[in-house]
Amino acid sequence: MEKSELLLADKKLGDLRYKEVNGVAVAIFDMDGSKVNTLHSRLIPQFEKILDLIEENTDIKALVLLSGKKDSFIAGADISELEEAKSVLDVENLSKRAHELFLRIEKISKPIVAAIHGPCLGGGLEFALACDYRVASSSAKTVLGLPEVMLGLIPGAGGTQRLPSQIGLDKALPMILTGATVNAEKAKKIGLVDYVCYETALQDKAIEAAERLVDKTLQKTKKRKSQSKLMKIVEDTSFLRNLVFSQAKKGVLAKTKGLYPAPEAILKVVKEGYDRGFLAGSERESTEFAKLSQSFEAKSLMHLYFSQTECKKNPYKTDYGSPKNIAVLGAGLMGAGIALVSSTKGLHVDLKDVSHESLGKGQKYIFDELSKKVSRRSLSTFELKKIMSHVRPTLDYEKISQADCVIEAVFENISLKHSVIKEAEEHMRDDAIFASNTSALPIKDLMVASKRPENFCGMHYFSPVHKMPLLEIIKTDKTSERTLSLAYNIGLKQGKTVIVVGDGPGFYTTRILAPFMDEAAIACLEGIAFNEIDSIMQKFGYPVGPITLIDEVGIDVAYHVSHDLGEAIGERITSQDSSMLEELMKEGILGRKSKKGFYNYKNKNVLSKFFSKGKEINPHTAVIVEKYRRDKSSKDDPKTLQKRLTYRMLNEAMYCLQEGILASPKDGDIGAVFGLGFPPMLGGPFRYVDTYGADKILAEISEFRDEYGVRFEPAQILVDMAQVNKKFYVS
Amino acid sequence: MKKESSFRGKPVILEGVRTPFRHSHKAFANLNSFDLGSYVLQGLLTKVGLDSSAIEHVIMGTVLHEPRTPNVARECLLGAGYSSSIPAHTVSLACISSNVATTEMANMISLGQIKMGVVGGVDTCSDPPIRVAKSMRKKLVRMSKFRGLKDASKYLGLLLGLRPKDFALDVPQVTEFSNGKSMGQGAEILAQQTKVSRDEADAYAVRSHQLAVKAMREGIFEDYILPVYTPPQFEAILHDDGPREDTNIKTLAKLKPAFDKDFGVCTAGNSSFLTDGASALLLSDLDTAKKKKLEPKAIISDFVYRAGDPLTEMLSGPALTIPHLLERNNLSLDDIDVWEIHEAFASQVLSNLVYLNSDIFAKDRLGLSRALGEIPIEKINIWGGSLSLGHPFGATGCRLLYTASMRLQKQKARYAVVSGCAAGGHGSAILLENPNL
């Protein structure tokens, strides 16, 4: 009611509404035609007008900035404006204009107070930092941060300069470098906001703060107030500070392998501000920001950001409701992982297994993962207990009768899965949906055991479930839209990025992973050391090398997948004969789960952890691999190897789109990046083809085909794209 | 026969669960009351397949109060994932705490204030709230008011003023505050009044263990006891660890008396032991049970609380209450086929049976014309009792009530009486009636 009264009293100035309360001007930022506020260049003159107004009008003592959006302050800069920008210079000008506006806000003699409720990110936080005082709501929806780096950018409106000067270099650098956000309580603690109140009091407290700043009964929070004395000395002494920067750079390079330019640029720009002052730092910020905004890395990351945002929306009709109760069959690593991500988000989970021992192990897994959060203080012991209480262990199928959705995560064995499906359906509600979690077993083969194939789908989770962001839902031609919509909602509730793909051998992700691993195995047989292969691929941008990945997935699983998919699709998936993997399996070398794979995974003690560098190759495996080694030793340089592996994955992704397994290139990019770790700065296989050029890639793949054979047979769709010079994404 | 009830809703027991009862400092050593209580609250609803939205109130009984969870019922409710809009409170009346929780909610249901609720009880002796000595507490409170460096001299003064006695610990005792006597001493005093012998007490203890072992073997508790997975290893705890097959007269006779070293009756072998555990019951009125298609196991028909002298009648609760309960419901000894009596000490049970059969006690102490008579032993605690199964103070009442409910159904009996004694000289007797006859 109060709000509608305000609306009537307001004067409207473009995207802003304006009113006066006892000599305090209140500007309400409420962008036309959008659910959230973003910073767009069209706002600059509007804000300037408000500033003119309060400067000219002597009756006005202070200004309060509020958001008119529900549960959102300012979500950041308008990224589409960056995408549309024609040149680096355009963006640089944009950044400079924002700098001028914020500098004016900072310098104006009358106090300006930002009232923050909801996300205050990127440009939004930069805006707030330019104000004299920040009041924030204690709501969980209030988060503050500079996440630009996640889009391959740096803050472009003074954030690199104002954040360190506000909260100190030691706290600001990690925030800018990782894009981490803080809640209101933490923000208050580190001096990022001045006062925290309940959201209903936000406007009143902000106005009160403005009035008291005018009559000087309230002081602005001291800068760097929570910084330790030691850090103050370090920050204020140039040679010590330089040491901090050089250490930070080492850390950054170790993480980015030089593939992501933004973090290095952040260090440069922040350092410039310390060395040569605020204005020089700001100028450097504008040029670096503009340069990065047009880089292919940033464009790829923005592409992923937009695609992911799209995947976070259920594409189906959603009036089928949102499930509250699920049952998970099997309390192994996958089942417990699914229970973990579900119970954390408030879903009730009936966790079913055949023995108390496995139920105990499953609960232990959940407990241990949550306990890590407790020791990081991101969760209280009470919250842990509450989450655990959502998981209800049981030995009886009868207990699953309440579930809206039953997810089966038993061992990957088709007859076992069949019997589980049959037994579960006896006890399930007729309208409950059933999902099989499998990485490769065709859903249509599992579905034959089901009485209600329309309620049946695949839900392919990735291990470890709580860390891997992707969920691949597999539909058959019988799966109903209701089933897909409900499964999608469960995925979203669990915090997953969801893609829906067609049924086929290996679906999408497993199918494109198999040839990638196959090529890695070939590289082994050509005599390249395991760790060498991993390191070469990591340098290309894969977060985990392919050999380590085989160990993680399990050598037995890799063998079965490559064998089955090889049979179904042919040499393009599995070109080498798999006797090497078979022998490793026979020797009990199964990867991480057996503590030995291509590498050794012994539990290291503190001392050996300290002395050993990286992973230790398993000599036994090396001997076996040597036995199968081909005469020819690899003559390929690292670059060629990177391309061979990447192209096998990429080419198979093209086949998946061509055959309709994938509904869109977007799903293909999201699946490859978030499920398999395809280098994010390349934006996914399809985006990469667009950036690099279909003709060039086709030429290189064709060359490989001529040299290595049919495993590099290019997909027709790629040939077509190259011919007509088309792109997958039409901008 | 029993007179017609004028109650608006008949309170009934629908379902019950409990954790295994385990010796303190063993399987549940890492859990506190809040953990154990959450398990039973969560497990109860899971067992019935109800959502917490059906629950209107939760009451739990406890004896050893963990200072951080003074209203442990509320924390258990929140930890169990119940809706936070359900009120919860904790009651405390020593060993009959959850009897009080149950009868209090029975009243709420009778008056039509609520339709469905959960009662329970929980206790753990594995982590008693041990405090520092009072002299030290006073110093610590004073110190909490010192501020920063300017009070450095005060800190120093306090430090120099510390004496060895300040480091003594204040450990909670199972003793009467008013007279300083322990429960064991109370049992000895009672045995001297009723002339119960050591041999009789040992024989009764053996019986309790044998019956409990037999009941476990027959799987009587299978549906009742919830598996508890204990962190950090999440080993499944499935059974009670109290009942011992090897308990016999010979081994018990060898034990030294625990309280009266020379002529005492009570030994470690014929007394209940320190136990960790929790129990809970789902209660509703009869109509609601029918509407929700839940099978009522027992009607809570009536109950009596009385108290006696905290020294001489510390453990005489059953004798003080049962005769009144039966008299005012026009029931005779023969009408009752199910007896569940709390076994704090073997001698205490026997002493109460002596009193119940004593005309002098009935006349002098209860103002009744004659004694109730001799309760047939084969109707008492036929699946074991607190001596063998264990006695997590606050949780025992609900265990007795649910055991009696199960017996009503299994024996197709009409009436059950559940009775217990409690510190302070309290007694409780509750009349249950089979709704399915």
The side-by-side strand order for the widest beta sheet of chain A comes to: 13-12-11-14-15-16-17-18
Compute the number of helices of chain B: 14
The amount of beta strand of chain B, in percent, is 15-25%
Order of helices and strands of chain B: EEHEHEHEEHHEHHEEHEHEHEHHHHEE
CATH superfamily of the domain at 11-127 and 272-433 in chain B: Thiolase/Chalcone synthase
The overall pLDDT of chain A, averaged over residues, is 93
Uncertain regions spanning at least 5 consecutive residues of chain A? 1-8
CATH superfamily of the largest domain in chain A: 2-enoyl-CoA Hydratase, Chain A, domain 1
Give the class of chain B from helix and strand content and strand pairing: alpha+beta
Q: Give the averaged pLDDT of chain B, no decimals.
A: 94
Number of strands of chain B: 14
Q: Rg of chain B, please?
A: 23 Å
Tally of DSSP β-strands of chain A: 20
Shape of chain B: globular
At CATH level 2, the architecture of the domain at 11-127 and 272-433 in chain B is: 3-Layer(aba) Sandwich
Count of discrete alpha- or pi-helical segments spanning 4 or more residues of chain A? 32
- What oligomeric state is this? heterodimer
* Helix share bin of chain B: 25-40%
* Tally of individual domains of chain A: 3
Summarize the structure.
The complex is a heterodimer of chains A (731) and B (437). With 731 residues, chain A is α/β, with parallel strands linked by helices.
Could you characterize the architecture of this molecule?
- The complex is a heterodimer of chains A (731) and B (437).
- By secondary structure, chain A is α/β, with parallel strands linked by helices.
- Chain A has 3 domains: 2-294, 2-enoyl-CoA Hydratase, Chain A, domain 1, CATH 3.90.226; 325-502, NAD(P)-binding Rossmann-like Domain (Rossmann fold, 3-Layer(aba) Sandwich); 509-724, N-(1-d-carboxylethyl)-l-norvaline Dehydrogenase, domain 2 (Orthogonal Bundle), CATH 1.10.1040.50.
- Helices cover 52% and strands 12% of the residues of chain A.
- In chain A, helix 15 crosses helix 16 (356-375).
- Chain B has 437 residues and is an alpha+beta fold.
- Chain B has a domain at 11-127 and 272-433: Peroxisomal Thiolase, Chain A, domain 1, CATH 3.40.47.10.
- In chain B, strands 1, 2, 3, 4, 5, 10, 11, 12, 13 and 14 form a 10-stranded mixed sheet that branches.
- The chains are: A alpha/beta (731), B alpha+beta (437).
- Chains A and B meet through helix 16, helix 17 and strand 13 of A and helix 1 and helix 2 of B.
